Amino acid sequence: MSDDKFFDIKVLINNREILARYGRRTEEAQRFLDNEVLRQSRPFVPFLQGILANTALIEEPGRIIYVQPYARRQFYGDYFDFTQTYHPQAGARWTDRAKASHMPAWTKGVEAILRGGNA
Asked: What is the pLDDT of residue 84?
């Protein structure tokens, strides 16, 4: 992968103690977390035609990628004036901003799954 086209966002649950205690639930919790990060980051993703937001994917557990060649520059905000016509909260570092807004809910959902319930 070229550094110009991709950047990594990793959110992992990989603590051995957690794996030993909770088994398969850790996979469910990771899947929940990945989907929530992707979904709740979307309003912060720059959006003009939707290509950047619509081509984001969960490449593997704990790894979300934005595959467009300009994704890295947009993420770090290098020389961009972000239009906020379609996404009023759009701007750089969208996953960081989503994390700041939604981390308590993400934590609560992961904990619920690990306890054996639903998020």
From this structure: 87
